[in-house]
Amino acid sequence: MQNSFQYPIGTPGQKWTEKEVALWRQSTSVKRLYSTDVLPKIDALRDAFDVIQYGALSYDQERFPLFAIKTKSWNANKPTILVTGGVHGYETSGVHGALQFANENANDYSAEFNIVIVPCVSPWGYETINRWNPNAVDPNRSFYQDSPAEESANLMAFVASLDTNIWAHIDLHETTDSDESEFRPALAARDGLEYIEDNVPDGFYLVGNTEKPAEEFQKTIIGYVEKVTHIAPADDNGNIIGSPVVQHGVINYPLKKLSLCTGMTDCEYSTTTEVYPDSPKVSEQECNDAQVAAVVGALDYLRAKM
């Protein structure tokens, strides 16, 4: 439905210029610290994993180094699994769920798989609790050649440097109430469009690949997650966030067309998790646990396929 809400930056019907982007950037503020919340958890994994700095954000290279965590028993004959978090930096359980999986579970699968975990793709977004980067660009719509988002470009370059085929990619996200109160209205304003209100689904769901839906893979993951948290129901139109529900808790997107993170490789299996942290039914820890359950469910499915 239409909404009369007018975003405070920009002129309705007109795309933002650099002036509006600068005003938007000035409206952001640091709300938490990457150096306090995330980097110590990465450092604590150095004995158990190979921790690699694959870049740094130009906004402040000392403040925003980019790290990946790799299992030590890397072998070109093993399939490679990619786990990413914090592509949208504000999605907290994506970051901390990835780190929890690394700390508690990843090495349980290292005999069968090469596993690489990139826990916080967008640390500026993490600190300011933002979907975009400082240039009002969404990293999760920017996974293509000559990307305007350095977060995306750095990750793509790193994955290419691994010189291995990615068999599966699990990208950890959240859908929050702020998607409707802030981020989607800001997107409409930035692009000179009318904001059309939608509902935020109460519960966990997955986004699969329209071109490679991998139905049993997605079904297995949902089965693991619903032991931890509730799964989002379809709305009255049979949709979740405007897309048809293809099975319990699963919708599909054309990943490459939309330049999403899980579309950056030609992997056979991919899924994007969506945790709902604003539900009164869940705690912060349960959100992290749901992310871990999704990755574990994916790996158990793939282990059985070998």
The structure class reads alpha/beta
What sort of overall outline do the alpha carbons produce when their principal axes are compared? Answer: globular
User: What is the mean predicted local confidence, pLDDT?
Assistant: 97
Query: What Rg, in angstroms, do the CA atoms define?
Result: 19 Å
The main sheet comes to:
8 strands, mixed
Q: How far from one another are the termini?
A: 47 Å
Question: Please, how many helices?
Answer: 10
CATH architecture descriptor: 3-Layer(aba) Sandwich
Here the CATH topology equals Aminopeptidase
Low-confidence stretches: none
Neighbour order of strands in the largest sheet? 1-2-4-3-5-10-6-9
Q: What is the name of the CATH superfamily?
A: Zn peptidases
- The number of distinct β-strands equals 10
Top-tier CATH class:
Alpha Beta
**Domain module tally:** 1
The helix content, as a percent range, equals 25-40%
The portion of residues forming beta strands comes to 15-25%
